[in-house]
Structure formats: C-alpha cells, structure tokens
Amino acid sequence: MKAHFFISVLLAVLVTVFFGGTVAAEHLAENRTKPYQVVIVRHADKKDKSKDSALSVAGKNRANALGEILEKWNVQYIHSTKWRRTYHTAYPAAESASKEIMIYQSLSQLAEQVQLSGGKHLVIGHSNTVNEIVQNLGGTPGGSIDSKEYDRLYLLEANCSGQVATKIFSYPAQKEHIQAALLKGLPECQGIGASEARLPNP
Length: 202
Fold this sequence. Notes:
Elements: H1 2-30, E1 36-42, H2 57-69, E2 77-80, H3 84-97, E3 101-103, H4 107-117, E4 119-125, H5 130-136, E5 152-158, E6 164-170, H6 175-182
Parallel strand pairs: 1-4, 2-3, 2-4
Antiparallel strand pairs: 1-5, 5-6
C-alpha cells in the first residue's frame, strides 16, 4: 500500500515537472522581445495658443527637417494625436516613407502597440505627454519639457531581452548624430526569429 502511494506521488511529481516545465517554456517564448527603435518628439513649433493650432513657419521647417533626418531610416509606423500640430509634424516623414499616420488616444495602448509590433516607430506627442510615452516604453525620461522647447528628440532602442536604451538629442542641430544612431539598425535576436519574439505588456 505504501509502495503504491509512493509510486503515485512520484508520477504526480514527474507529470507536474514535465507539464509545468512545458508551460514555463511556452511562457518564456511568449515573452521574448521584438527589438524596436522608437523616435519620440514633441510636435513642432505651433503658430498660436489656440486649442488646435497649426504649425508656425519655424514649425513647418522643423517638421521638414525631421522628415529629412528620418529619410533613410525606413520608418515602419508613424503615430500622432488628432491635433493639427502633431499630425503636420509627422506628415513630412510619412510622405517621404509612404506611410499612413496612425492616430492614438491612449498612451498605454500606444506603448503596447509599439512593443508588440517591434520595428521602427515615430511617435509625435505633446509637452505633457512625451516623457510619459518614454517611460511607458521602458525608457528614461529627461526633465520636463518647457512650453517653448521643441527640439528634444528621444531615441529608444529595445533589445531582445526587453532592455531599453535611451538616447536624447537636439534636432535638427544634431542631425548627423541622430542619423548615425538610427542607421545602426535593430538589434538581432539570438536563437529566435523576429516573428517569434514577443514583449510582455507594460
């Protein structure tokens, strides 16, 4: 009777270890990371203080400069809020890359979309949202963005382990440095294909 009980317990342990290990392995596979590069900027200089202000002449020049900086990067996804100042900041880059501008409302959903898709993203935000976007993506935000500050550019790079590196530039002043950083490309995943990689929800 005792021998039968011992064998039953042993079988139960073996089954638990085997299937538990299988589940754990599947969980780890599901949480592998798709590498990504994300450029995050505040909208360019606005024309006035109205709720849905257009870009000023300086803002249009800055948006065009951003498009030129990203021209050879082959951006895959472009995200903007519904406001004219953000959409028009994204437009030159979108036109150059022949990409649709996707409108986002929820910052948490934006982060999830970026993380799950991987690849190369441009995100246009606002002075009071840019740092939160950076933080949601696992980056390190800088200080608060002043109402007159339009030149801060974040580059976040996530490797296949989910580690995120944050680089901060001034654009268009540091155009060549930004382009050099972007053109290094995405980190490669060791042992898995990019299509198999997954990033856990934030």
